[in-house]
């Protein structure tokens, strides 16, 4: 981690960034290729993710959204190409050096991926303990802080099995942000939610961006949510970026694949 990079913070008194830091994309992907056997699943991806934006990643099924996101999280190494997180090249970084980079990136998996045998507090504490926080008062304070952000104050002792689908997603979100990431990736955060609960997740995603400066990357098929939260849209097809731009331009775009996608998923 470079010393010039300010620590992302879930505190509103966030650290002033230098203009150089602000100008540098948080994530820069260049010439990214990936294969599974004969299947060429990423075919030359060039992508910048700008600091403090909400980027929605859309596309046809099997288009490569999840595989691309796994590369940006440092969970997969590319066959070819470059991935920079905060100016640090991670494409072929050894596992033991990836820890500080991964700390900048939170992830909310599709089904929440909570540990069923652990309480809400234990689930949220997990990444903190992994990154070396041991003091129980510090753990309690940070758990309470993020539970307040996701509107679940006082739910520390609940078990996942007693939570609704929307509550589980909010606990998963609390866990994703508890270690103060600069960016959170969401894999289908609206899946299985009713429209009102989906809208409440959208409010939280936007709140993290506007109040806490978090950069959001959201994989979703939920077009109502996309038009509520996206600053920018990337549309993937067959392992390539088929289209990118602003939501209004996306809606007005006459590309037949995109029009069919909007109509099918709206
Ligand atoms: N672990 C894997 N082993 C082999 N092939 C894989 C693996 N993961 C993904 N693929 C393949 O990579 C391609 C891209 O998959 P990916 O999951 O990124 O698509 P996606 O855009 O996220 O699709 P969806 O919207 O359906 O979730 C697909 O052809 C998929 O079958």
Automatic annotation (TrEMBL):
GO terms for molecular function: ATP binding; ATP hydrolysis activity. Residues 1-21 are annotated as: Disordered. Pfam families: ABC_tran. It comes from the Bacteria. Residues 27-263 form the ABC transporter domain. Residues 1-12 have a biased composition (Polar residues). Gene3D superfamilies: P-loop containing nucleotide triphosphate hydrolases (3.40.50.300). Keywords: ATP-binding, Nucleotide-binding, Transport. InterPro entries: AAA+_ATPase, ABC_transporter-like_ATP-bd, ABC_transporter-like_CS, P-loop_NTPase. The keyword Nucleotide-binding applies. The keyword Nucleotide-binding applies. This is ATP-binding cassette domain-containing protein. It comes from Oceaniferula marina.
